Each structure stands twice: as C-alpha cells, then as structure tokens.
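Curious: explain these tokens?
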Amino acid sequence: MPCFHSSHLIVVIVSISSVVSFKCERVENVCETSLIIQQYLTMTHPVNTTVYPSNGKLYDFRNLNPSLSASVPTEEVITADGWGQKRLVIVANRTLPGPDIVVYEGQRLIVHVTNNLASDSVTIHWHGLHQAGTPFMDGVPFITQCPIAAGQSFTYEFTAYPSGTFWYHSHVGSQRSKGLFGALVVLKNETDPIPEHILQVQEWNHEWDSDYGFEMMLYGIVENSTEYTPSTSVDGSSFSLLKAQSGLFNGRGRYYYDFKSDSHNSAPLTVYRVKHGRVYRFRVIAVGDLYPFRISVDDHLITVVSSDGYPIQPVTVESFIINPGERYDFTLFANQTIGNYWIRGRTLETNRVTLAEAILRYETASEDDPTTKRKECRIDNKCKVLNCQSKYYPMTENIQCIFLDDVESGNVSDPAPSVVNGRFKEYFLNFVSEGMVNGKTFKFPSVSAISQPREITTQCENTKCDSMKMMTMCLCTHSLNLDKDDTIQMVLSNVGIDSGMSHPIHLHGHSFYVLKTGFGNYNKTTGQLLSQTDDLMCSGSMPKEKNKCEIVTWSNQSWSNGNVPGLELRNPLRKDTITVPNGGYVVIRFKADNPGLWFLHCHIEFHASHGMGLVLNESFPDIPRVPFGFPTCRSFQRQYSGSKDLNEFTNDTPNVAGTISLTLFWVIIAVLCGVILVLGLALVLMKKRTSSKTLSGSDSKGKFTPVSCQHSSPG
C-alpha cells in the first residue's frame, strides 16, 4: 500500500467518497507518496474472489442467497457497473479511481510511480498543473520523458501550483479509460474551509476495453449481424463510435436492463453524506473517454464556483455540462427534507441513454435508494444549464443556456495579456475529423523530445507535408515555436468538410484566458446546426463545408492582430480545457512565460491516440535542464557498410548532444598515442646528441623508457 514517508510529513489517510485519500498536513513542505500501476479485474475480491451485486451490496458467488450470507466489503472491490462478466482494468494501487492525492498550494509533491504491468509502458500526467520550472515532470511519453517500461519506476517531483481541482492520469494509449486516473486536489492555505466531496464521472463499457474499442471505432461495430450506429448529439452531429452501457461516479454505477421499468442489476453506488443545514463543495472531474455529461442533483440547486482550478463569479443553475478533461466545482446547500436524493450524470446522446448515478444521503436518512425525480423543465420555469455545447437546444426541452462567454472570472484583477507590437502572435488551429490539426496527424517522436531534441527526425518540415496534398494523411511531429514572453492568441476551430462533434481541447503548461466562443448558424426551434460560422474562411476556392480547411483565417481581415470584436479582455475565465463547438471556434490567449514542450490536444482519448494534437515548443533555449540521470530512449537500427560483414554490429553510437561517436573516440585516442610516441622518440634523440658533447670522464648514459598507450573506456 502506498504511504507518505514520515521524514517529510505526518500521515493522514482518510476516506473521501469511498476512495482512499492521501492528504498532506498543512505544515509540511514536502509530501511524498507512491502509485503502483498494475492490472486487476472488476467484480473480484482479493479473498472471496468473484462477487455479485444484490440490493446495493456485494456477495460471494458461492453463496447465492443474500439473505443468508454476509456481504463483502464494497470498498475492497472494483465494481464498475456491477456486470457479472469481469473486465480487465489498469489501475493505481488496485482502486478505481486511483487514490485521491490532496496537498496544499506551494508544497513540494514527490510521487514514486512503479510500473508493475507485465507488457506495457506507462507515464502519469498531472492534468492542469503548470509545471513551471519542471517541464520534464509533465508526464507525456516521448515529449517530456521516456515511457516507464514494465518493471521500471520513475519519481515525479514538482510544486503543487496553482490551487484547485486537478487530476492525474496515464498519457499512454488508452490506459486512462482503462482505469488509470485519480483526483489531485491542491488546497488553499485557508482556515475553516467548507467540507467537500469529489465526483469523477465517466462512461463505461463492461464488455471490452478501450484498445478493442479503438479498433471498433476505426472498422465499425457489428453485433449479431447488426451494425451499431454512432450516437447523435443535440446539434445533429454524430459522436465518434463508442459503445457504453452505463456511467460511473467514482468507479461505481449500475447496468440498466430497461430504463422505463427501472430494471437494473442493483450494483452498489457511491454515497455522498451530508448534514442538514450545511454547505458542501463538490469537485467534479470528467475522467471519461468521449461523452459530455450533464450533472444535476434532484431537488437541489447547485452553484458553480470554479472551473479548471480557477474561481468564477458564482452561477446558480439546475445543471451544468462537463466534457472530458474539464473540472467544475459547485456548492450545495443541504436544506431539503432529510432523505436520499439522486445525483445524476447523463450524457448528451439523443438516441441513447447513458446514465451515471450516485446518492446524496442526509445524516440519519435510511439506507434505501432515492425515489426523487429530476426537475421538470417547463416553458414557465426553464432549467438553467451552464456550458451548453451548441447555441440552441430544442425549444421543447425548455432549457436556458448559460455560455462560458456569459461568465466572468472570480479573480477581478486578472485581465488577459495585452497586444504588444512585435510581441503578439496569432495562430489558427483547426481540429477536425478524429485525428487532425490543420491537416496534420500527430506522430510522437521515438525519443524524449525534451532531453534528446537533436535526435528527432519526424518533424513536419522533414516529412514535406506541403507537397503531400494528394495523400489522405500527413503524419508528422507537428509543432509550433513560441518566443519567450510573447502574447499568444489562438483561434481553435472546428470547421470544414471534416468538422463534426465538439472537441474538448486541453493545453499543458498553461491556464489560458477564454476570450470568445463563436458558434455556427442554428435552427432555433430544433437546435440543429444549419451551417458553419461566418466569421472564419478557409484557403482555396471551395466553401468551408466542402473544404479541408488546412489553412483558416478571419473572414474579415480587420479582425487580425487582436482586433476581434466581442473579446472579453477585462475579466475572462481561466481554463486549461475548452470545448470547440461543431462549426465554430474559441479564441484563447496566454503569455509565453513558461518555457517547456507543451502538448495541445483533444482530450477525447480516441482522438488524441489518433493524432489530434501538436507540441508548443516554448522558449526552447530557456527550458530548464533535465535532472542528472534522466532516462533517454531511442529506436535501434543496425548500420551496415559495404566492407562490413552482415553479422557485425556497428560500434557507433548516435550523435547525441554533448557526445561523440565511439569510432571517433578511438581515432582520437590513436592519434594522441602516435603524437606521444613521436615526442618520446624526439626526446631520446635530443638526449643522445647532448650526451655526445659531454666530457670524456663522464659516465652519464641516456636512458629511454618506452611509452605505452593504455586504451581506457570513454568517460
């Protein structure tokens, strides 16, 4: 079991929302813990082996009469949605989610990660933390480190900043949606904070894991000779092809056989306990793979107070929408009749129901399931919903959308960086299809870019993507070079023939300012997207809807250089993950004041794995050096020449910055030995000449000591 080392801090282990939590004491400067990465199975108890659900509890499969059997402790089992067929998961410390890590702002956090997977590498990304001064701890394979191979360990060490709700997760392949994630909360040093809970929400497929699902997304899902069609969204677009049978809060949910009859498998759910009359803070983290969730609590209004770790002006709503990678904090006043109430998370699928459920349980209430109903949204009492994905909802749903454009930051003295002549750069990045940015599909290098930059050979410049117009895909290590302290404005768009579902875009290393969201044109009655935004244009003669849109710019060129109308510059939101709407765009801005290699990518796991991302190469000469002994990695290829036997391996090593090849080393040694030998012979001759001129009575004799050349290993 992971532990904090007492040499640094006092151990405080608490249970928050059925997940083991590791909390650092406020007085400590250094917090240290461990994550053990391993495979495990759902619905499996380490002692009682296989379990099954009944009436919200778990029982040993050998005892099929629950009334005559003792239940198995739920906290010792990864239940997921309680499906009887076990599913393989990849988890930290044998829990789903992994253990909460709770520290205070400014503390030094040390996390020892050990990879006990038998056949896979791993890294851990600390989602939302800026990693100022430690970009090599950001946890992106082949960008900021080499992957941690099976059997290896890696120690992450960084400052916990800023404060807020964050999380950690694997950044290798599809391990995140297989279960490798957990909450990371950075608390402010404040007295008497309100009590809080953590909600981590995701969709779940209990039949197959994400690697299988990724291949099915590419080639189609056919079951019993019937094709499984993608789910659709409110605006009429289709989600990527992902089958989910249920939703989970903190790793627990239920499989519904039939929603209309309320028929389900009675699996245990996460319970959040509250006392009547108190206010609670709920930290909600979208840890899922694809779908946005709409979060609500029956019979309670919720007040959203923070997003992605930064405070916002409080907004009281019926519900809010959260996308993969985002975090929202809300407060809840427990002022209702003592009892049990449903906490609901439903995806935005319009042709299917994927539902996550948890229980808000007042102190002294019964242990029964809630019987509450969700609020009915009426024309005379509409439901206020924060963070809508499209401009309009169908009128019949009676929803009043509150967009992020309508919300101001809670930090009143944090304006957006200003435009400075010569120090302002604007970039247009078009995220489309299921894996492209500006027509390029991202390919990871085969080395650790931050520590082996001269060995990268897959840059887009080297692949000559501009001359590959006839090819369907340009595969390269896409990057942008940012100069130190420049003001960077990015227009993140989702337009062109390959545009579609909304994309949650996440930036490492920064929390950017959200200045504006631009939508397409909609049918106000149905909420369907009619056409893409008029604010952007694509190069070429084809209209946007038929254009690849590899080069995007403003339709009105007077909007360039930061002159876009409607920008919120005085008090904009700060976020690290923002959703780019179908047919629209988002304008963000930040200052390039954090040297590093920062990944910018879609946080839909399938899309990121398929190449929807790029690297921001920020102030490369100023990037801090990696620690001594930092791992390196590279591909290996045998090198041949016409004079060498095919079975002979080369002794040359790659030209790494600060080193020379092994062959050149021995050549230098041989030359030095030759020089020493010549100097030695010259010295002997000089001594002989001198001795021949000495007096005849002298018995001095010249002596010559051979110089031996000792070959030493290169240092």
